[in-house]
From TrEMBL:
Similarity field: Belongs to the class-IV pyridoxal-phosphate-dependent aminotransferase family.
Recorded metabolic or biological pathway in which this protein acts: Amino-acid biosynthesis; L-leucine biosynthesis; L-leucine from 3-methyl-2-oxobutanoate: step 4/4; Amino-acid biosynthesis; L-valine biosynthesis; L-valine from pyruvate: step 4/4; Amino-acid biosynthesis; L-isoleucine biosynthesis; L-isoleucine from 2-oxobutanoate: step 4/4
The name this protein goes by in its record: Branched-chain-amino-acid aminotransferase
A Pfam family reported for this protein in Swiss-Prot or TrEMBL: Aminotran_4
Cofactor(s) required, per the database record: pyridoxal 5'-phosphate
Reaction catalyzed: L-leucine + 2-oxoglutarate = 4-methyl-2-oxopentanoate + L-glutamate; L-valine + 2-oxoglutarate = 3-methyl-2-oxobutanoate + L-glutamate; L-isoleucine + 2-oxoglutarate = (S)-3-methyl-2-oxopentanoate + L-glutamate
Gene3D superfamilies tied to this protein: 3.30.470.10, D-amino Acid Aminotransferase, subunit A, domain 2
CDD domains: BCAT_beta_family
Record-linked InterPro entries: Aminotrans_IV, Aminotrans_IV_CS, Aminotransferase-like, B_amino_transII, BCAT-like_C, BCAT-like_N, BCAT_family
Source taxon at top rank: Bacteria
Length: 360
């Protein structure tokens, strides 16, 4: 039997931020979804509760051994005023894959999605409707058991918080500069790179700082073994358009299987544009540029959507892609994906899921 989701009201609602100044991940709505796990009780006490600071034991295992995973998804306001999600079942599935890899107990995917829908319905006034905006949804789980031995914890907390957001990189669809990292690695095969665990991002910060200092928006990671094959960018997957064909690194166990990545591949197939998932070396990318065949490079991710890459730097070589302009294909994919997400275009793939109706 499904559990009832209880509602704990707050006394005062917050003022909503100005849509023009949203940025990414700075503002949080009035409520969050919360649920706890105990070995004896399973996942229990699902509730929509005021967004507020948590109290945790200093010995909570997450602080010491890092059992922490998350997801990223978005809710969109459609022209008729209803709210919808984009392929949320894929996020739920990946959340459980992250649980599995981090020895966190599995969640009921359907139930969590229902909880997220109820939370968004409560918070529908927080779904922004300015150009390029959406309500970013961040589900996450971490271990809360107070214990210092190294083993999977017996207690966890699951939270879903909401953040009205605009573009991830300052402005939507402006080409970014990316730096190919050679000293540090993001993930190894057999490790945790293919799931969304907090530690992956902690491990990326040192290189990200280097990139920031050089004026780059993000890092392009290479494989950990040979330092040769392209993996992904800090917060998105990567695509190269070479001589009319699109190539993206094949999922190999250390690359994150992005929902936007998968959607771009599906879209390209639908448009009959050749697309291949295969191992591609950074040398090949630079060689393609030298031959004049590297037409476009773009990243794809939930937060970033489609992000054209205008410049790539590897060792001491910098290349400018498509004159640092938004490529036609990047623009077309962006228009189509955001059109579907925002309910402005037909959704032939059945990717969108309504959360609220016009009245709702
Ligand atoms: C997302 O795209 O939703 C992500 O989780 C990337 C994040 C690190 C901003």
């Amino acid at each position: 039997m499904k559990q009832e989701i209880s509602f704990i009201p707050r006394e005062e609602l917050k003022a909503k931020p100005d849509t023009a100044s949203l940025g990414f991940g700075k503002y949080f709505s009035d409520y969050m979804f919360e649920m706890d796990y105990h070995n004896d009780l399973g996942w229990h006490n699902p509730r929509i509760t005021p967004y507020e600071p948590l109290t945790l034991d200093p010995s909570a295992m997450v602080f010491h051994y890092g059992q922490a995973i998350f997801e990223g998804m978005k809710a969109y306001k459609t022209p008729d005023g209803s709210v919808q999600l984009f392929r949320p079942e894929k996020n739920m599935k990946r959340f459980n894959e992250s649980c599995d890899r981090l020895c966190i107990p599995q969640i009921d995917e359907e139930f969590l999605l229902e909880g997220i829908k109820q939370l968004i319905t409560t918070e529908k006034e927080w779904v922004p409707d300015g150009e390029g905006t959406s309500l970013y949804i961040r589900p996450f789980i971490f271990s809360t058991e107070a214990y210092l031995g190294v083993r999977p914890a017996n207690q966890y907390k699951l939270l879903v918080i909401l953040s009205p957001s605009g573009a991830y990189y300052g402005s939507q669809l402006s080409p970014v500069k990316i730096y190919v990292e050679e000293q540090y690695v993001r993930a190894v095969i057999g490790g945790v790179g293919h799931v969304k665990t907090a530690g992956n991002y902690a491990a990326s910060l040192k290189a990200q700082k280097k990139a920031d200092a050089g004026g780059y928006a993000q890092i392009l990671w290479l494989d950990a073994k040979e330092n040769k094959y392209v993996e992904e960018v800090g917060s998105m997957n990567i695509f190269f358009k070479i001589n009319g064909e699109v190539v993206t690194p094949k999922l190999n166990g250390s690359i994150l299987p992005g929902v936007t990545r998968d959607s771009v591949i599906e879209l390209l197939k639908y448009w009959n544009i050749p697309v291949r998932e295969e191992r591609i070396s950074i040398e090949e990318v630079f060689a393609a540029h030298k031959r004049g065949e590297l037409e476009e490079v773009f990243g794809a991710g939930t937060a970033a959507v489609i992000s054209p890459v205008g410049e790539l730097t590897w060792k001491d070589q910098s290349i400018t892609i498509n004159d640092n302009q938004i490529g036609q294909l990047s623009q077309d994919i962006y228009n189509e994906l955001t059109g579907i997400q925002l309910g402005k275009k037909e959704d032939p793939f059945n990717w969108t899921v309504k959360v609220t109706s016009v009245e709702g």
